């Protein structure tokens, strides 16, 4: 009685084993190839256990396209926060924005007010008057004039005042040169370097030495000389007009003059605190001792 277990072609399964040794062109071999191809197709749909293939398939996913390569070794830059010094400051401080805005306004206003900066400027004809004001606030005429008056003075009160004025002028030169050397701010681009008595320290702009000297001398005169009210007003106007002339000539920016006036006003407080007299520094007045 034939066995119920038969192959697809109607032959017994036992015959298929014996036909595996037949020639490649036989029908039995063709059926074996069909079964092998069918099993290979089924096995290709099974999950891949090869780790290399798994990594290649994972690299094609949208998640890995947006991120870094999955084959790269994990490092401190993947997922770890950057150090504080390596981060870009995308939110500058309010103080930094305010300072940059103030600097931009200062440069713009200084250029607008530089109406006497050159002969071809809108107020170029007023340069001689501005340069005369420049000479009136220069340090060398003030130092030479103070030394001459000190040598010609015949009263102790006058000598004391002139000695302290000389001390104030020397202090002003020292502080202005020190601040200019530290800040090193260049003069405005529209400035023409045609000043009298130009020294090497004057290539810097901040603060204005003329403005500091004008504020210092005007406050000194108002506190130690008895003047009528019109003369006192003229002294104050001279200080402010001299500071304004520095911007009109293009020598300084507005902030250079504003800080210079403030610095000169405060310098007198130092001079008044360290006031020199024959009682505390008698060595300085020994040249005028009467025989």
Structure description:
The chain has 291 residues and is an all-alpha fold. The protein contains eleven helices and no strands. The longest helix is centred in the middle third of the chain and has 28 residues, at 156-183. It is globular, with a radius of gyration of 47 Å.
Strand content: under 5%
Q: Largest sheet, described in full? A: none
Class of secondary structure makeup:
mainly alpha
SSE string, helices as H and strands as E? HHHHHHHHHHH
Mean pLDDT: 74
Q: Give the number of helices.
A: 11
User: Unreliable stretches, pLDDT < 50, 5 or more residues?
Assistant: 1-33, 62-77, 84-88
Q: State the helicity in percent bands.
A: 55-70%
User: How far do the termini sit from each other?
Assistant: 163 Å
Quantity of strands, as a count: 0
Backbone CA Rg? 47 Å
Shape summary: globular
Which key features would you list for this structure?
disordered N terminus, mainly alpha, 291 residues
Blueprint of the fold:
Layout: H1 13-18, H2 27-44, H3 51-59, H4 62-66, H5 94-113, H6 127-136, H7 139-152, H8 156-183, H9 209-224, H10 229-248, H11 254-273
Q: What's this entry about, in short?
A:
By secondary structure, the chain is mainly α. It has eleven helices and no strands.
